[in-house]
Specification:
The chain has 1 helix and 2 strands. By secondary structure, the chain is mostly loops. The protein has a domain of 49 residues. Strands 1-2 form a two-stranded antiparallel sheet. Strand 1 and strand 2 form a beta hairpin.
Length: 82
């Protein structure tokens, strides 16, 4: 998969990235950070971290985790990712 953009985000700061269907966002360091995902076509739908943790049965996320929205829709399922 081709890298479309590579960016270093300084500590104690933030960044925003638009990721469309079929694209992936990858973090390269093992650091603690806040992650927010919002549906660009419906701003009322966002990543629900509590439901995501419950579905995965884990407190921490990893590359093999399913992400679930507050509308209970699976937003990323690594078993079917392209």
């Amino acid at each position: 998969m081709a890298i479309l953009k590579s960016e270093v985000v300084p500590k104690n700061s933030g960044a925003a990235f638009e990721v469309t269907k079929g694209q992936r966002l990858r973090t390269a360091e093992r650091k603690i950070f806040d992650f927010v995902a919002i549906n660009l076509t419906n701003f009322n739908e966002r990543l629900d971290q509590a439901v995501t943790r419950g579905v995965n049965g884990a407190t921490y996320s990893s590359q093999s985790r399913i992400l679930v929205s507050n509308r209970r829709r699976i937003q990323f399922n690594p078993s079917v990712a392209v």
